[in-house]
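In the laboratory, one determines a bound structure by crystallizing the protein with its ligand and collecting diffraction data. In a computational setting the workflow is compressed into a single prediction: the sequence and the ligand go in, and a structural description comes out. We illustrate the idea with flavin-adenine dinucleotide.
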Amino acid sequence: MSVLIYAESAEGKLKKVALEIASYAKKVAESLGTTVTAVTVNAGDVSELGKYGVDKVLKVSNDKLNTFNAKAYADVIKQAAQKEGAKVVILSSSTDSSYAAPIVAVGLEAGFASNVVALPESTSPFVVKRNAFSNKAFNQTELTTEVKVIAVAKNSFGLSEASGAAVAEDFTPTLNDADFGLVVENVDKVSGKVTIADADIVVSGGRGLKGPENWKMLEDLADVLGAALACSKPVSDLGWRSHEEHVGQTGKPVASNLYIAVGISGAIQHIAGVNSSKVKVAINTDPEAPFFKVADYGIVGDAFQVVPQLVEKLKEF
Ligand code: FAD
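The predicted complex, in structure-token form:
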């Protein structure tokens, strides 16, 4: 019996979220008196997982899995869990894992808790703390099934290094045509840029920027911070920016360490998707803008003056 994690990777490299999940799983395994096994898919070098508490890695290599496919990936994770006799299966709350996790839970006849924000409050009974209502409330959920699947919210648990090395072994799950019933025909990738899902810092622009021609200053700010760019819904609806960048309730969720909102009013539907970010900064001419109510830091000022000054100042560091 071990704790199993799905350690995500992209283009042959482990993602940071894989190390976060490993750190989390290590603590869960300690409280259960067991070890951590990770399953990876076409992940290349997986040795780093050992530094974050993983004892064993089941490495799956299969060209058919180069593109994420929820059903097939869920089957891989399910078979890895069965092979290890895992009683707790832990995934992240990334877009891919959010698709796969419920399918894994159904396959294992397991209870499932998403949006888990802390280590289990107890493991017997197994009780986890989850966020709810767009992060406005928490709830305690008890999982009573023999096998439990949990999806941990991004950035709710930091990296914590452990001494040790993971033993890697090849793992070949049985996949059949039904696993590939859902065909991904096209994948649009934003190349060379930090993606919103992986970013520690997100710089986001709203209608206050007046038009797409004014995004250069936000791009400069994002470059100097190594940040991903995002925008409010109207900005993408107006075609100023791609829908890839739309964040909020109906867009991508953001759970970065730092979220900088420039010329964004802070409508409830926007805040709902970005509220999990640790530190929120608002830059807005209107001191009554709702964003200031949830912001940790606020600058009441004209973005066209504030942002270029910020960029110049940050370049000094
Ligand atoms: P505005 O509300 O127009 O705000 C612009 C802000 O810029 C103002 O606060 C203004 O003071 C400020 N400003 C103006 N000039 C400057 C300047 N020079 N410098 C600095 N500040 C300046 N919205 C989302 O973002 N994401 C969603 O997922 C989303 N989902 C929705 C779902 C539903 C069902 C509905 C009904 C709405 C949804 N919306 C969503 C829309 C949301 O309600 C708001 O309309 C939207 O977030 C407003 O975008 P904004 O802040 O960019 O624009």
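The pocket of flavin-adenine dinucleotide is lined by residues 206-208, 232-235, 248-251, 263-265, 267, 269-270, 273, 283-286, 289, 302-304 (CB under 6 Å). Keep in mind that any predicted model is a hypothesis to be tested, not a measurement.
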